[in-house]
Design brief:
By secondary structure, the chain is α+β, with helices and mostly antiparallel strands. The chain is built from three helices and six strands, in the order αααββββββ. α2 packs antiparallel against α3.
């Protein structure tokens, strides 16, 4: 029976919860084990999420790197292609100008080849020859070289154009007998074939210039 003289102590909810907690060693040990397990599980989950995020970043990095490499390769190819196109355009323009200069060189060739014997030591004639040599040097400095087509040279249809056949020369059939007009190449490109007369054996008809 409750002592009427003893004051009634009211328990709070917090005290009731504390009293309800099992503080026995076994319960405490189980609670610690559960906490450790939960912590390990959370850490494993966090590590897995971290690994997944890193793998995703690595994949994106590799993708961006591959795209950058492709763009760099395409830009390099574009730069090389445009440089080659510009070089070709300059070459075409240069060929047009050089062709006009070669026509002038042909005039010098004809003038020097037909120089009268009495002008062999003439200063004026020597001056013309000196101008011709300067013109040749200028062409060579621009990469223009003459096609080899002297007498006795083997005929090459890639560089020579036969406009006449000469029998009875004593040379093998098809060998160049005479250079009629010089041919020229610009570096590794033929810009004008040499016009030549070639040796003919037998009674074959003379070669005619193709249309």
């Amino acid at each position: 029976m409750t002592d009427p003289k003893r004051p009634l102590i009211r328990r709070t909810r917090a005290q009731e919860r504390i009293d309800a907690v099992d503080t026995s060693p076994a319960a405490v040990s189980a609670a610690l084990e559960k906490l450790r397990h939960d912590t390990d599980a959370k850490a494993a989950q966090t590590q897995a999420e971290h690994n997944e995020a890193m793998a995703k970043l690595a994949a994106e990095r590799d993708e961006y790197l591959a795209a950058l490499q492709r763009e760099r390769a395409e830009f390099t190819n574009f730069r090389q292609r445009t440089a080659k196109e510009r070089e070709q355009e300059r070459g075409l323009a240069g060929i047009d100008l050089i062709s006009k200069v070669l026509a002038l060189a042909d005039d010098f060739d004809r003038a020097i080849d037909t120089r009268p014997a009495e002008l062999a030591d003439n200063a004026w004639a020597e001056g013309i020859a000196a101008i011709d040599r300067k013109l040749r040097s200028l062409l060579e400095s621009e990469g223009v070289t003459a096609v080899e087509s002297s007498s006795g040279t083997a005929f090459d249809p890639r560089e020579h154009e036969a406009i006449a056949s000469i029998p009875g020369t004593g040379l093998p059939d098809g060998v160049i007998v005479e250079e009629v007009r010089r041919g020229y190449r610009l570096r590794d490109r033929l810009i004008r074939p040499a016009l030549v007369a070639v040796a003919q054996s037998g009674d074959a008809p003379p070669a005619s210039r193709p249309n």
